[in-house]
TrEMBL record:
This is Protein-disulfide isomerase. It comes from the Bacteria. Keywords: Isomerase. Residues 20-66 are annotated as: Disordered. Residues 41-50 have a biased composition (Gly residues). GO terms for molecular function: isomerase activity. Residues 65-246 form the Thioredoxin-like fold domain. The keyword Isomerase applies. Residues 27-36 have a biased composition (Low complexity). Signal peptide: none annotated. It comes from Streptomyces melanosporofaciens. InterPro entries: Thioredoxin-like_fold (IPR012336), Thioredoxin-like_sf (IPR036249).
Length: 253
């Protein structure tokens, strides 16, 4: 066993990681729980069940179901978005740029691959990042629209907690926020999955993938593998700067 020190700091609107042990994380990504009968597998069909089996949401794919791509399958470009659901700079990014990303997805400008970290859980204690991600997995199991709408609600000025508050560690708070999403308001399977922590192991896998990605700050965005930056040289934090960076990249820099 190796002791790992993880620190996070908000610098210029970006949450940074300093890590003495790359790829380290709290808990094991292999600590899984039994999912409910009929829970969907990585391809959205079937049900992975039985002791020790990982339950993955519908509309996920890839090893462990940790690939979450939303948009037209034949879109010629891929936007990678890296966020921590507990991170205030990520919330600011989502509030400013999220509607533009949603519009671009519908227009077929690119498809989006989402990646999630738990930086604040590690640096400040608690489990709000991971718990909110588990709940977001339950929303993804309902539909991709429910996923996008719930993520927007979690990141909204009304709901997103201050950095020092681990509000999303509380399932009741996550359920309260879900009432703002039409597809989730009366969805019993979503509520059960959230309460039971059905997608807790999946959330751990998602976080482990982020830890192994080499990305060391959130929010971060890449288009076709190339980092997007605004005028300050960091992640574009306004819709105008984001669109400018995207269009520049699409035109070949």
């Amino acid at each position: 066993m190796v002791a790992v020190t993880v620190a996070a700091a908000v610098v210029a609107g970006v949450l940074l990681i300093t890590d003495d042990g790359k790829g380290s994380r709290g808990g094991s990504s292999d600590d899984v729980v039994q999912g409910p009968p009929g829970a969907p597998g990585p391809d959205g069909s079937g049900g992975s069940q039985g002791p020790g089996n990982l339950v993955t949401p519908a509309h996920s794919s890839g090893p462990g179901g940790t690939t979450v791509v939303i948009g037209e399958a034949d879109a010629g470009h891929t936007l990678d978005v890296y966020e921590d659901l507990r991170c205030p700079p990520c919330a600011s990014f989502d509030q400013a740029v999220g509607p533009t990303i949603a519009k671009d997805i519908k227009a077929g400008k690119y498809k989006v691959s989402f990646h999630f970290a738990a930086i604040l859980d590690k640096s400040m204690g608690g489990n709000g990042s991971a718990n909110a991600l588990s709940a977001l997995g339950a929303a993804l199991d309902v539909s991709t629209d429910a996923f996008l709408d719930y993520k927007a609600a979690l990141m909204s000025p009304k709901n997103h907690p201050e950095e020092s508050k681990d509000s999303y560690a509380d399932d009741n708070q996550l359920l309260t926020v879900s009432q703002e999403v039409y597809a989730l308001k009366t969805n019993a399977s979503f509520r059960e999955a959230l309460r039971e922590g059905t997608y807790d192991p999946w959330a751990k896998k998602m976080i482990a993938d982020f830890d192994a990605s080499g990305v060391n700050s959130t929010p971060a965005v890449k288009l076709d593998g190339s980092q997007l930056t605004g005028s300050s040289g960091s992640t574009p934090l306004t819709a105008a700067e984001f669109t400018e960076a995207v269009n520049k990249q699409l035109k070949g820099g």
